[in-house]
Design a protein that fits this description.
heterodimer; A: alpha+beta; globular; B: alpha+beta; four-stranded mixed β-sheet; three-stranded antiparallel β-sheet; 9 strands
């Protein structure tokens, strides 16, 4: 009997956890504001937003939590609100986990999850104003960026 | 002799079929490049075990195992950079100059601008006027010498000094947004209590 009770408790805990985590996942996307804009596209490239795939075209907005992917012949370049430049070569996937550029509140952060492929990055204002708030996460490492340009390749799955 | 050659052939065939062991391990490659303006920043590569800093352009780090320390950076051949990253690099958008950033430096423990920064301030003014900007951020900082409360006050005074000067040169107060962080956001990381002229600064961002 006790075991059954425990099980029920743990199941309800799991349900609560699921509910809470869904809320947590949904809320940033609700605050849907543009954090970047697509400036260059060639071949096939898309943005996956809340399960929907949107074909990338020049001028398309990029939101926080968006996943960007390029096809085997595709490439894409985006310009963030703080003038950071990010571009991806073919067969690449990355997620804009976090982008905060609020000089009035003194809040700055960029977190990008690189899943696979190649990317080039050139820092904008955020890394100048708040040098330790930009990170790229890869499956093997975390990369802290201090005002600079670099390229990255992730072999992924 | 014959045995050796058949071994080599066998190995080549094996490599061909499997893609070879070295290619099969998942690995990340990170290469630092010079900025368009020639300056070079730094990146820190951190795994579960340790971290490494790359601060020379053209140097890169290969990471294969998240639980091992990353290897020391080594030079990566230009051809390899071109071959691997050529398409990603050519997809980079053009630099936009939606913002201009100016960094004004101050004499130690004062609100007195260095002579070079005094000259730069007139440049700031010129740019605000030519862009007709109504969004200018003025952000004050100090180095890490002294107590936090003292430095917050000093950074606020530095930022207000710049603001007041701009206002006295006929910039509308409504266009100027002041913030200050004391010693909490050094441009150059130092230990506490280390004097560092590059951290005694006010950043002005003109939109």
């Amino acid at each position: 009997m006790k075991r059954v009770c425990l099980k029920i408790v743990s199941i309800s805990k799991a349900i609560i956890f699921l509910l809470v985590s869904t809320v947590a996942v949904v809320s940033p996307a609700d605050a849907s504001t543009s954090v970047a804009i697509v400036k260059k596209v060639s071949g096939s490239a898309a943005i996956v937003r809340q399960g929907q795939t949107i074909r990338a075209t020049h001028g398309l907005e990029v939101w926080e939590s968006d996943m960007l992917r390029t096809g085997r012949n595709g490439s894409i370049g985006i310009l963030f609100n703080d003038d950071t430049l990010l571009s991806m070569g073919p067969g690449s996937v990355l997620v804009i986990d976090e982008f905060v550029f609020a000089p009035k509140q003194g809040k700055f952060s960029i977190v990008i999850k690189m899943v696979k492929g190649t990317a080039a990055y050139l820092s904008g204002l955020i890394s100048k104003l708040s040098p330790d708030s930009t990170y790229i996460k890869t499956p093997t490492a975390s990369i802290g960026i201090r005002g600079t340009k670099f390229v990255i390749k992730v072999e992924g799955e | 002799m014959k045995r050796w050659s058949s071994l080599v052939v066998g190995w080549i065939v094996f490599c061909f079929l499997t893609g070879c062991a070295t290619h099969r391990t998942k690995r990340d490659l990170i290469v630092l490049l010079p900025d368009p303006d020639g300056k070079v920043g730094a990146i820190t590569v951190t795994t579960n075990a340790d971290s490494q800093v790359i601060d020379k352009p053209g140097y890169g780090i290969v990471v294969e195992d998240p639980n091992k320390a990353p290897a020391a950076p080594k030079p990566i051949h230009e051809n390899e950079i071109k071959e691997v990253f050529g398409q990603a690099l050519s997809a980079q958008p053009d630099l936009s100059n939606r913002f201009l950033l100016f960094i004004l430096y101050f004499e130690n423990d004062t609100t007195k601008l260095t002579p070079e920064s005094k000259a730069l301030l007139s440049e700031v003014l010129k740019n605000i006027k030519s862009r007709k900007s109504n969004e200018v951020y003025i952000v004050g900082h100090t180095d890490l010498v002294g107590r936090e409360a003292y430095n917050i006050d000093l950074s606020s005074k530095r930022a207000r000094h710049v603001r007041d000067w701009l206002i006295s040169n006929s910039i509308t107060p409504g266009a100027l947004f002041v913030s200050y962080y004391g010693k909490s956001r050094p441009l150059v990381s130092t230990k506490d209590e280390v004097p560092e002229p590059r951290n005694r600064r006010v950043e002005v961002i003109v939109r």
